[in-house]
Amino acid sequence: MHEFRKCVKLYRGNYKVKSFTCLDQFLCMAFAQLTYRESLHDIEACLRSMQNKLYHMGHRRMP
After folding, report:
1. What pLDDT does residue 4 have?
2. Quick check: is 35 in a domain?
3. Is position 6 within any domain?
4. In three state form, how does the secondary structure of 1-63 look?
5. Best CA proximity match to 22, nearest among 32, 31, 11, 33
6. Residue 35: domain span
7. Cβ neighbours of residue 51 under 8 Å, at least 6 residues apart?
8. Does residue 12 lie in a domain region?
9. CA pair distance 17, 37, nearest whole angstrom
10. In terms of C-beta distances under 8 Å and separation of at least 24 residues, what long-range contacts does 16-19 make, across chains too?
């Protein structure tokens, strides 16, 4: 996590971000890869169906 935050800071990844941070995006993409999701719609549908469990995965909320 330290290395991730260091890279985000180095490349200003969260510059002018209001709600969906680099960490949120990374967690979504990692979830998609681990669960073999095939499209953005598929990722969104799966994450929305598990909204009550997102907190335990590190997500604050779905945008």
Report:
1. 94
2. yes
3. no
4. CHHHHHHHHHCCCCCCCCCCCHHHHHHHHHHHHHCCCCCHHHHHHHHHHCHHHHHHHCCCCCC
5. 11
6. 19-63
7. 62
8. no
9. 26
10. 19/63
Please give the residue that has the higher pLDDT: either 7 or 57. Answer: 7
**Number of other residues whose CB lies within 10 A of the CB of residue 18:** 7
Sign of CA dihedral 3, 26, 54, 32: negative
**Quick one: how far is CA 54 from the chain centroid?**
10
Q: What is this structure's pTM? A: 0.78
Instruction: Output the pLDDT for position 9.
Output: 96
Residue 50 in domain: yes
Domain total in the chain: 1
pLDDT of 14 = 93
Instruction: State the Cα–Cα distance between residues 56 and 41, nearest whole angstrom.
Output: 22
